[in-house]
Design brief:
CATH topology of the largest domain: Alkaline Phosphatase, subunit A
Mean pLDDT: 89
CATH class of the largest domain: Alpha Beta
Number of strands: 29
Shape: elongated
Oligomer: single chain
CATH architecture of the largest domain: 3-Layer(aba) Sandwich
Helix content: 40-55%
CATH superfamily of the largest domain: Alkaline Phosphatase, subunit A
Length: 838
């Protein structure tokens, strides 16, 4: 390959395609014409060689035009000056900001001209270095002239390969045709010996002529050489005499290993050979005392050391280093294994949580000064930490190895320390000013102030989606998955105690003026206008009596499973779901796992009620919740020593008495409750009144009592702004019907349904479903996968790798489906069966 072609196709073009903007710094003006040659209808090239001011204006215009020209548009900035390195240099360079937003060339010293020439022609590294000794800046033509002769003709012919790299790949991981050609040809072994000496500095020891015997020796030499080059320190004494490549061959070694690891056709063989060589060379034992093995995980044992380094970096507050290690892990062949995937996911979740907690630190002093500022801090920033903590607990569902236990405890403690600080400030302000928060929406007023006025307008139909335990951060995640429409997320004050019977009753008409809580025979019952509301039937009867045929209620599952017929006379549709609360109450660990699925179901339900003609949707909840996995043995709140108290739930006491150092105690009236008892007490901390509670609500905290109200208004008609698309799902491993891993990989491809349709991005849902319709596998969070809703986003003309995480207890036949998350229409599906031991 000519050097110009190599730089254009292997360096400039990939970087430009990925980043959209490429800044090329070239003080020697070597790449000017090469940069200009990148120009096309889609690529704008700005040359700053002549006028810096005009170039700045041209660059600014080009970037502004990107949004108008579509997803294929690109911008190249050619700067005939050295790349700014220090912050001071970047501040004085008008083009540095474009490099920060996009990509730059050169990235580092490895992209010096001589290095690029060697990468383009690794088999001629010696000759290229000689040319640079003769002339520090040889022309492209001089480099291209090197190796013009037809070397290794028999290898080129037998393997249908041109470059030395392609020849070596053909020897190490040949196709069936290449194997057959090597068997029927003779004399290529001598050529291979010459090639190995020239490219890798390797002297082949074996006298055998069989390809597999020769390849085995090359594999050992190649993999061990990459390992040695990457090792920052000295080799263990037991490995010093193992054959390895000279430093001059490093580019060739690294390039070959990268190709073998990354190419789907070669990856499995790479894994098998690396595992075998690790055992043959006894690397794990030889390197057991080496903490830093570099950055490349050539062998599987290295992945463990990188994971431990990541965990240590997070605990030592070296978050940038941990972020870098986690980023590298996503490219590693070893991190894709079943248990490795889960453990890296846990490390990533721990990092995200620690980062979220640290990001909040500068805001805490100001944000906790008043009740208003505290609520604002919670609804805008603390909810991000709540979400990160929930993700951590989901990642910690599976068996956590001893090596990551300290990391898990550390991340949980960071979060617990944060919420405890917020809780103490919250209770202090409530004791001073009472509850609910003055000026904030209250759940007892939601129906009268929001729903009722809508129903009063002629022709307006309202769907009220009532979700048990929809914490504020979950509502924020739900909004990300909603289709077009005017959406508003409001914070509301839940009614105390934050339990389901009380919270659901507070969402009914006239709750603000008539809701009363009666404590009788140790049982707490909400009354509305004198009517007891002990269950959902009694609550729905209130709405039936008020609205008659204009009202209908359905459960979320009923809306999902059948073609629900809703009369046009129905103006108020209530959709009820208790899945989040019931799942978390019964099994907090399993419930956390299912939350993303439940959010997707809610999004689908909202889309369906829109299809049924309800332009206004109000999503409400009774209370929030707290995940309590960080609790230690004995981490409970002692009840007040005096008085007479009834435990209403995990974190609320009702009755008579005074507070103490551990408990607040206020009058029911001050806490906004009309009741037969005079006082309400609760923990000042985030601890419950009983041990072993992994999920709780009922008390007074930001997570339990500041709840969301989501207002959605859709246009008069359902309009699908997206053009038709064609979506396919295939196995990454080919057409096999048996799944041998709990983390099978699939490829989702999206194409235009119409040749003349514009490019677009499509949101998709991928699930594994068993015969009964239960979800038994969901996407593992990745680059294109939303970590909260687990939907994926793919552009037309592109594809996306999706790794499904199969549930541990499932085995048998299942179907993988790719769906529209709004309509649940299936685009494509695969029928598969597990073939692994549960």
């Amino acid at each position: 390959m000519q050097i110009k072609e190599y730089i254009r196709t292997q360096v400039f073009q990939p970087r430009l395609n990925k980043a959209g903007c490429l800044v090329i710094y070239d003080p020697d003006r070597r790449y000017r014409q090469l940069s200009r040659d990148l120009a096309s209808d889609a690529v704008t090239v700005v040359d700053a060689s002549e006028s810096s001011i005009e170039s700045r204006e041209a660059a600014s215009r080009a970037l502004r035009d990107l949004a108008l020209r579509g997803s294929d548009a690109r911008v190249v900035l050619y700067i005939p000056a050295p790349k700014p390195v220090t912050n001071e240099q970047k501040q004085s360079n008008p083009f540095a900001v474009y490099g920060e937003c996009g990509a730059v060339f050169p990235e580092d010293d490895s992209e010096e001209y001589q290095s690029l020439c060697i990468k383009a022609k690794p088999e001629y590294a010696t000759e290229i270095r000689q040319k640079f000794r003769e002339n520090p800046a040889p022309a492209f033509a001089v480099i291209d002239a090197i190796g013009k002769g037809n070397r290794w003709p028999q290898l080129r012919t037998a393997l249908s390969a041109e470059s030395s790299n392609d020849i070596l790949i053909g020897i190490l991981a040949p196709s069936e045709d290449q194997k057959a050609a090597l068997k029927t040809s003779d004399g290529w072994q001598d050529e291979l010996r010459e090639l190995l000496q020239s490219v890798l500095g390797m002297k082949l020891v074996t006298k055998a002529k069989q390809r597999d015997t020769i390849a085995y020796e090359i594999w050992r030499y190649l993999l061990f050489s990459e390992f040695v080059f990457d090792l920052p320190g000295e080799l263990p004494a037991s490995l010093v005499n193992v054959p390895k490549a000279p430093v001059a061959a490093r580019f060739a070694v690294d390039g070959l290993c990268d190709r073998l690891r990354k190419h789907q056709d070669h990856r499995e063989q790479y894994i098998a050979m690396a595992e075998e060589m690790e055992g043959e060379l006894q690397l794990r034992e030889a390197c057991r005392n080496i903490a830093d093995l570099g950055v490349r995980d050539t062998f599987p044992f290295e992945e463990r050391t990188f994971l431990l380094r990541t965990a240590a970096a997070i605990r030592n507050d070296e978050l940038a280093a941990a972020r870098l290690l986690i980023g590298r892990s996503k490219q590693s062949v070893w991190c894709r294994r079943d248990e490795n995937v889960e453990q890296w996911d846990l490390a990533d979740a721990a990092l995200k949580l620690v980062e979220a907690c640290q990001d909040l630190e500068p805001s805490l002093a100001q944000g906790t000064q008043s009740l208003d500022s505290l609520v604002e801090l919670y609804t805008t920033s603390v909810r991000v930490a709540d979400r990160a903590h929930r993700r951590l607990e989901r990642a910690a569902m599976t068996d956590v190895p001893d090596s990551l236990e300290d990391l898990l405890r550390y991340a949980r403690k960071q979060y617990r320390d944060l919420v405890e600080r917020l809780q103490h400030a919250f209770v202090k302000h409530i004791e001073a000013s009472g509850w609910p928060v003055t000026g904030l929406l209250e759940n007892v007023s939601v129906f009268d102030k929001i729903v009722e006025p809508m129903l009063a307008e002629k022709g307006r139909r309202v769907a009220m989606v009532v979700v048990d335990a929809l914490r504020f951060e979950l509502a924020a995640e739900l909004l990300k998955d909603l289709a077009d429409g005017e959406v508003e997320l409001l914070a509301s004050c839940a009614t105390l105690p934050t339990t389901t019977p009380v919270g659901m009753a507070s969402l009914l008409p006239r709750a603000a003026s008539t809701l009363e809580l009666i404590l009788s025979d140790e049982t707490l019952t909400p009354y509305l206008d004198g009517v007891p509301l002990k269950n959902v039937t009694q609550r729905m009867d209130i709405l039936k009596k008020r609205f008659g045929d204009r009202f209908k209620d359905v459960t979320l599952s009923e809306l999902q499973k059948k073609k629900t017929a809703i009369s046009e006379n129905v103006d108020l549709l209530v959709v009820r779901t208790t899945e989040i609360d019931s799942m978390l109450e019964n099994d907090a660990t399993y419930g956390v796992k299912l939350i993303p699925t439940l959010l997707k179901d809610l999004s689908t339900a909202i889309a369906k009620v829109r299809m049924l003609g309800f332009r206004n949707v109000i999503v409400v909840t009774d209370h929030g919740f707290m995940l309590n996995a960080a609790a230690e043995i004995g981490d409970i709140c002692p009840k007040p020593s005096g008085g007479h108290w009834k435990l209403a739930h995990d974190r609320i006491l009702l009755g008579e008495g005074d507070g103490d150092a551990h408990n607040f105690a206020m009058t029911a009236t001050k806490l906004g409750v009309r009741a037969s008892f005079s006082k309400i007490a609760g923990p000042r901390s985030m601890a419950p009144y009983r041990a072993g509670v992994l999920f709780f609500h009922g008390g007074l905290s930001l997570q339990e009592a500041i709840v969301p109200v989501v207002k959605i208004r859709f246009s008069a008609q359902v309009q699908d702004a997206t053009a038709p698309v064609s979506v396919r799902i295939t196995r990454k491993a080919g057409a096999a019907k048996k799944v041998t891993t709990r983390f099978p990989v699939f490829v989702v491809s999206v194409a235009k349904g119409d040749l003349f349709a514009p490019d677009q991005t499509v949101e998709l849902r991928v699930d594994a479903i068993d015969r009964e319709g239960h979800v038994v596998g969901e996407p593992r969070p990745g680059e294109s996968i939303d970590p909260s809703t687990h939907t994926i986003t793919v552009g037309t003309g592109h594809n996306c790798d999706v790794t499904l995480r199969m549930t541990e207890e499932f085995e048998g036949k299942f179907q993988v489906r790719v769906l529209d998350p709004r309509t649940m229409i299936a685009y494509d599906s695969l029928d598969l069966e597990t073939s692994y031991t549960v």
